[in-house]
Amino acid sequence: MINMENDPEGKRLLTSINFKGIEVGKNKDWDDVRALGIDLLKKLTEG
Questions:
Q1: What pLDDT score does 47 carry?
Q2: Distance, CA of 19 to CA of 4 (rounded, Å)
Q3: pLDDT 10s digits, 3-46
Q4: Degrees (nearest 5) of the Cα angle 36, 19, 34?
Q5: What pLDDT shows up at residue 18?
Q6: Cα distance between residue 24 and residue 47, in whole Å
Q7: How far is CA 16 from CA 12, 21, 33, in A?
Q8: What is the C-alpha separation between 28 and 44, in angstroms, rounded?
Q9: How far from each other are the two terminal CA atoms of the chain, in whole angstroms?
Q10: Model pTM?
Q11: What are phi and psi of 44, to 5 degrees?
């Protein structure tokens, strides 16, 4: 998926949803989301 913009069909699909490409997310990219303190799914993720 990360290289879709390099493939004609992938580029067409990305363009159809107004995306330029997809990049790998890093753990630190989610720090702002974690800071919101949303635990709605916490019960589902705890064993």
A1: 64
A2: 10
A3: 999 999 999 999 999 999 999 999 999 999 889 888 877 777 87
A4: 10
A5: 97
A6: 27
A7: 6, 12, 27
A8: 22
A9: 31
A10: 0.57
A11: -75, -30
User: What is the rounded distance in angstroms from the CA atom of residue 3 to the CA atom of residue 22?
Assistant: 8
Phi-psi category of residue 36: left, alpha or beta, with phi > 0 → left and psi -120 to 50 → alpha: alpha
Token reading at 23: 């990049």
Residue 33 φ/ψ region, left for φ over 0, alpha for ψ in the -120 to 50 degree band, beta for the rest: alpha
Residue in the block written with tokens 């067409």: 12
Q: Which two tokens stand for residue 33?
A: 């989301």
